Structure formats: C-alpha cells, structure tokens
C-alpha cells in the first residue's frame, strides 16, 4: 500500500543498488512521492526519484535538485 500523502526517502551510497532502485520505481508507479539521497550525481536512484540530494563527503558539499 502506497500513501500519496507520504514522502518516501531512498538512501544509498552508490545510487545504483538494484533493490532500492526497484522500490523507488514501484513507489512512483503507485503514486508515491520519493526523494533520493545518494553519493553519486546522476545515479539511477537520483534520476528515478522526482527530487534528490547528492552528497560528496570528501568535499563536504551537497547538491539538491527538484524535477517535476
């Protein structure tokens, strides 16, 4: 069951982990709102999530984006 009024958060280091990516796709398919937090800009989870944040720990910086 997916609640469209709930924000789901997908957190992965690489942003390419298949089980998490599949969960993000399923949530979106069922009308869920998903934000992704990953370490790799342009990763699959970052692209699949409508909104995301990419963090680069070595530089201690973060880039957040919103796509609708």
Give an overview of the whole structure:
The chain has 68 residues and is an alpha/beta fold. 25% of the residues lie in helices and 34% in strands. The protein is built from 2 helices and 4 strands. A 4-stranded mixed beta sheet has the order 1-2-3-4. Helix 1 links the parallel strand 1 and strand 2. The chain is globular, with a radius of gyration of 12 Å. The two termini are 23 Å apart. The model has no long low-confidence stretch (mean pLDDT 79).
C-alpha termini separation: 23 Å
Along the chain, the helix and strand elements come as EHEHEE
Principal-axes shape call: globular
Low-confidence stretches: none
Which percent band covers the strand fraction?
25-35%
Kindly state the mean pLDDT as a whole number? 79
Helix content: 25-40%
What is the alpha-carbon Rg in Å?
12 Å
Structural class designation? alpha/beta
Number of strands: 4
Spatial order of strands in the largest sheet: 1-2-3-4
The profile of the biggest β sheet is: 4 strands, mixed
Our count of helices gives 2
């Amino acid at each position: 069951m997916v609640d469209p009024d709930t924000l789901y958060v997908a957190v992965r280091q690489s942003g390419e982990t298949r089980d998490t990516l599949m969960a993000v796709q399923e949530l979106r398919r069922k009308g869920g709102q998903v934000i992704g937090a990953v370490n790799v800009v342009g990763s699959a989870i970052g692209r699949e999530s409508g909104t995301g944040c990419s963090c680069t720990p070595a530089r201690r910086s973060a880039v957040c984006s919103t796509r609708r």
